[in-house]
Amino acid sequence: MATQRENDAADYLKKHKIIELMDNLTSMLFFYRPENPREFLIEQLEQLKISQQSGMRGPNLFNNANLNAVFGILDPANQKYITFAQYKQALTTLGIKDINECPEGVNEDRISHETFKTEAMQGLQRCSATAVVLNAQQQRAWPGSDMAASLYRASSTFSGCGEGKGPYCTFNKAQTFSSVTRHCTTSLLNQSLDPLPMRGPELGVQADDIEAPETELEPKHEVLENKDVVVQRVHIDGLGRTKEDLLTYEIAGVFQAKNLIDVMRKSHEARQKLLRLGIFRKVEVVIDTSRGENALPNGLDVTFEVTELRRMTGSYNTMVGNNEGSMVLGLKLPNVLGRAEKLTFQFSYGTKETSYGLSFFKPQPGHFERNISLNIYKVTGQFPWSSLRETDRGISAELSFPVWKTSQTLKWEGVWRELGCLARTASFAVREESGHSLKSSLSHAMVIDTRNSSILPRKGGLLKIHQELAGYTGGDASFLKEDFEIQLNKTLFWDSVLSASLWGGLLLPIGDRPTSIADRFYLGGPTSIRGFSMYSMGPQSEGMAGDYLGGEGYWAGGLHLYTPLPFRPGKGGFGDLFRTHFFLNAGNLCNLNYGEGPQAHLRKLAECIRWSYGLGIVLRLGNIARLELNYCIPMGVQSGDRICDGVQFGAGIRFL
């Protein structure tokens, strides 16, 4: 039990932050390595005293070059934003304790570069006044690595790998990639730091933004030196069922690094690629100096410590579709054959649709964007606007690959479709199309998406083009179907966003067979032409039932203005999830006589345009979905259209 004298001494050390002061001074010595340590320490103490008296920035190991370099390392994609978790952990790693928990952009989980820089600047200034700049573990230098290695350790995930931890594979630069050895490792590094996420911010203050006292010392050495280094070996520690040849493509870029900063950047890129495979629960990075007989003076060893996912994982969650919700249960077998393959079974029960399916996914080694997937499924859906129930049993095969800035998908699908009446009051037109049919189709999709968010974007655009050809590979259905989607977003003054979108499509029957009710387009509702009921506009059956039968051609356009809530309630917190919404929608849906030519089609689509306008409130549910509560005023209503004049609620992931 501690004596009273020992307790008093501990309180004294804590009150005056003596331990932190010693850690800070020791870190300065290790980093700068001055020729006269005593004089250097005196200068640091004098500078600290001035900073405490004046409130200005005190001694700090981070300068502008450090912060820019770290930001580049943690943001290899140059996205200019980070998540809140990255923001918080980065400031904690810097030694900042009183962190602002509600910075600008926290509700969108996108902390901008400027916001982070401001918060870090203020935090470092407060810390420097109490000599708590960095803790001792973060500043302890590695042999031959200087400050850059310390910065890397502050921006990556590390852990010691003790004896008996498991096998790892070693990739030696002097060997070919196919020469892979497996053996056990002892301790590579005795340090352990809390992990930071992949994408990171620029850490710290800008020297030009704070007026420094005249007596402040100039840096005596370049903090981040671009020393030439050679990556001699790359280790993958913790592999079990994963095949080593899969990983050679993902870590190959590390061997091309020429300096320490480059090693850190390429190690982060390799870590991203490993996590993207979906077979590892955790990937940690350790950089150390090379050891052994063939070690070079400037040689480095890079170790990726991985933790594989379990052989079988389960999940349950809820999904929000276009004005419908569902519960989803899933069972996954990741990395089932050792090369990032995935076997998935999924069951979904929703308000309008129930489905289950089995899928197999396999990427091309070294090119994850190029992949194939095979699917077997059964889907049963209810469509009350058409008094229709549809059950699809099918198989499909997809090939996905990138071309320039586009994402391309080729797909073959074979479906056994069963159409039936949802109610006894179903119209004769719906009953006439009831029964069984087979559809075999080839389709192609191209997507260019530069938006910063798919749910409520602030900038960027989207172009999506889809074509489907049915009948040439068998089946009862024969048609050519084309549709597209365009969206543009622009940030304006006062944090407002202007968004414009355009949809369109044509369905061309091939031969004498008419198109099916299951293949036609539908329009209307809170996710498309607001102010109209869900899919309740356009051609419909005769009689009392008035079932909507869909159309063979359509277009829809929307102009939206999103602004913050008036007077900004809850700014910097929950209130930022809401946006005020002003909209103008227009569109048309009809059947076409394809013998009349394209000009006749355009004239028909331009006749009797439905349109609406209004305002409302939008709530963003993370990056999952969004909710809208609008007051709508429908205009251009045609005979048979069902409207929703007044308040209308919508939920979904795809809105006009």
Short description:
With 656 residues, the protein is an alpha+beta fold.
Describe this structure in words.
It is a single chain. Helices cover 21% and strands 37% of the residues. Helix 4 (64-74) packs across helix 8 (146-155) and helix 4 runs parallel beside helix 10 (260-276). It is elongated, with a radius of gyration of 31 Å. With 656 residues, it is of the alpha+beta class. The chain has helices at residues 4-15, 18-32, 37-54, 64-74, 84-93, 113-128, 136-139, 146-155, 244-251, 260-276, 428-433, 598-606; strands at residues 81-82, 111-112, 167-172, 181-184, 230-237, 280-289, 299-308, 313-320, 325-334, 342-350, 353-364, 367-383, 388-403, 406-421, 435-449, 460-491, 497-509, 553-563, 578-590, 610-621, 625-635, 646-652. The chain has 12 helices and 22 strands.
**Biggest sheet record:** 15 strands, antiparallel
Rg is: 31 Å
What fraction of residues sit in β-strands?
35-45%
Give the CATH architecture of the largest domain. Answer: Beta Barrel
Shape: elongated
What are the SSEs and their pairings?
Layout: H1 4-15, H2 18-32, H3 37-54, H4 64-74, E1 81-82, H5 84-93, E2 111-112, H6 113-128, H7 136-139, H8 146-155, E3 167-172, E4 181-184, E5 230-237, H9 244-251, H10 260-276, E6 280-289, E7 299-308, E8 313-320, E9 325-334, E10 342-350, E11 353-364, E12 367-383, E13 388-403, E14 406-421, H11 428-433, E15 435-449, E16 460-491, E17 497-509, E18 553-563, E19 578-590, H12 598-606, E20 610-621, E21 625-635, E22 646-652
Parallel strand pairs: 5-7
Antiparallel strand pairs: 1-2, 3-4, 3-5, 6-7, 8-9, 9-10, 10-11, 11-12, 12-13, 13-14, 14-15, 15-16, 16-17, 17-18, 18-19, 19-20, 20-21, 21-22
Helix pairs in contact: 4-8, 4-10
